[in-house]
């Protein structure tokens, strides 16, 4: 599948793997793909993120992703649904971290050094969805913009965080493909 990826998209995947390793994560997840996209410059996805104002707001995105990771990857919608059942996720996180240390629910694997993380389900879903999105647009190659589009449509923390910052499928496609707006070149 990676032979269909542009150099920019392959670089995002490599950076996501490096980010997961640096974080001590058990697997490369969609959040790592988003963090890798935020680090990019000079690509179609970086143009889109800059056009939508996210380039200046990278740190709040990183903090929101870190907070969700601390909650074991639960979205706010998940936490709200649990709250409706009388389950306080913040209280559970606090108790677990009190007993086991900060970040205990994040899937950290620092106790198993030397093991490379594999691609988790959420990252594999992003890669598969990016392929489907590229094919739907009749694009021959999968670019980092397709990875960004996939992150906006797949349910989970990355889509929630992106939407909180005005980056949605509609806004990304508007910047990428026109409708009277600036196009990514």
Total number of helices: 10
Would you give the CATH topology?
A: Double Clp-N motif
Biggest β-sheet: strands ordered side by side in the sheet: 1-2
Note the overall shape. globular
Mean pLDDT: 85
CATH fourth-tier homologous superfamily: Clp, N-terminal domain
Name the beta content range.
Answer: under 5%
Order of helices and strands: HEHHHHHEHHHH
Helix coverage percent of residues? Answer: 55-70%
The helix-and-strand class reads mainly alpha
Second-tier CATH architecture: Orthogonal Bundle
CA radius of gyration is 17 Å
Protein name: Peptidase
Domain Clp R: 2-185
Pfam family, one: Clp_N
Keywords: Repeat
Description:
This protein is mainly alpha-helical. The protein is built from 10 helices and 2 strands. It has a single domain (2-72, 107-177), classed as Clp, N-terminal domain (Double Clp-N motif, Orthogonal Bundle), CATH 1.10.1780.10. The chain has a two-stranded parallel ribbon. Helix 1 crosses helix 2 (30-39) and helix 2 packs across helix 7 (121-136). It comes from Streptomyces mexicanus.
């Amino acid at each position: 599948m990676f032979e269909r990826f542009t150099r920019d998209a392959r670089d995002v995947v490599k950076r996501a793997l490096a980010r997961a390793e640096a974080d001590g994560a058990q697997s490369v997840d969609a959040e790592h793909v988003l963090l890798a996209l935020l680090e990019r410059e000079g690509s179609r996805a970086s143009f889109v993120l800059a056009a939508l104002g996210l380039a200046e707001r990278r740190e709040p995105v990183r903090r929101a992703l870190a907070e969700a990771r601390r909650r074991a990857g639960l979205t706010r919608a998940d936490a709200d649904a649990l709250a409706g059942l009388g389950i306080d996720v913040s209280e559970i996180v606090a108790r677990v971290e009190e007993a086991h240390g900060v970040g205990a629910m994040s899937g950290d694997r620092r106790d198993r050094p030397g093991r490379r993380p594999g691609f988790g389900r959420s990252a594999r879903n992003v890669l598969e969805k990016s392929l489907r999105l590229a094919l739907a647009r009749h694009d021959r190659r999968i670019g980092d913009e397709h990875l960004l589009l996939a992150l906006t449509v797949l349910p989970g923390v990355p889509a929630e965080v992106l939407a909180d910052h005005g980056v949605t499928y509609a806004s990304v496609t508007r910047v990428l493909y026109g409708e009277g707006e600036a196009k990514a070149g």
